[in-house]
Design goal:
Blueprint: H1 2-14, E1 19-22, E2 55-60, E3 65-74, E4 81-93, E5 98-103, E6 117-124, E7 130-133
Antiparallel strand pairs: 1-2, 2-5, 3-4, 3-6, 6-7
The structure holds 2-acetamido-2-deoxy-beta-D-glucopyranose (6 copies).
């Protein structure tokens, strides 16, 4: 039993992951979250309407800390390029839910009502492995 528990907790560490709750992620990426740039999910599905002047972001990390990036990519499909930084890289610490009440979109970003886009959240953990969510 002790062995089983240890094994389970090691497995837990090895598969640490995070989920984005708002705007709701495009799909459950737990199995493929290390895949750049979209965590292995399809950005053509499950869109959320997000205000044109920026909106909120809510995600639940599972690492004690991780260098975290929030980027925006314009486009409708898998060719989207995440080259607009929405939040400067920061060290996410602590356990719980992280919420940005209002993230603004840089001035001059070519968007209008109905523009398709994706928000990318990247978490770089202690040993440098990266996890992605869109
Ligand atoms: C799509 O998003 C909705 C919430 O906006 C969620 O309930 C649903 O499970 C999502 N679908 C998938 C395949 O993740
Ligand atoms: C994503 O979905 C679209 C259609 O909704 C499909 O054409 C495309 O092949 C899918 N891409 C991947 C990587 O599954
Ligand atoms: C936005 O993406 C949806 C599918 O998610 C597609 O039906 C629609 O045509 C796209 N809109 C534009 C302006 O490309
Ligand atoms: C992002 O990449 C697209 C496509 O290459 C380009 O048109 C756009 O100017 C780039 N935006 C920024 C902010 O670098
Ligand atoms: C992030 O913060 C944690 C907790 O304070 C610290 O242990 C860690 O070294 C920091 N990481 C970096 C890359 O600064
Ligand atoms: C974070 O909190 C949850 C629920 O309170 C707990 O199950 C989990 O072990 C905690 N994780 C860390 C790294 O402290």
């Amino acid at each position: 039993m002790a062995f089983l528990l240890l094994f389970l907790s090691l497995l837990q560490l090895a598969t640490a992951h995070f989920h984005v709750d708002y705007p709701y992620w495009r799909g459950n990426s737990f199995k493929t979250q290390w895949e750049r740039p979209c965590g292995g999910v399809n950005v053509t599905t499950n869109r959320t309407e997000w205000p044109l002047d920026g909106g909120s972001l809510l995600f639940a990390p599972s690492h004690p800390w991780a260098i975290t990036y929030v980027n925006l990519g314009l486009g409708s499909d898998d060719t989207v390029i995440f080259n607009i930084s929405l939040v400067e890289a920061f060290n996410q610490t602590g356990n719980g839910t992280l919420c940005f009440p209002k993230i603004t979109i840089p001035e001059g970003t070519p968007i209008s009502a109905g523009t398709n886009a994706s928000i990318q959240v990247i978490q770089l953990s202690e040993l440098g492995s990266a996890l992605y969510n869109v």
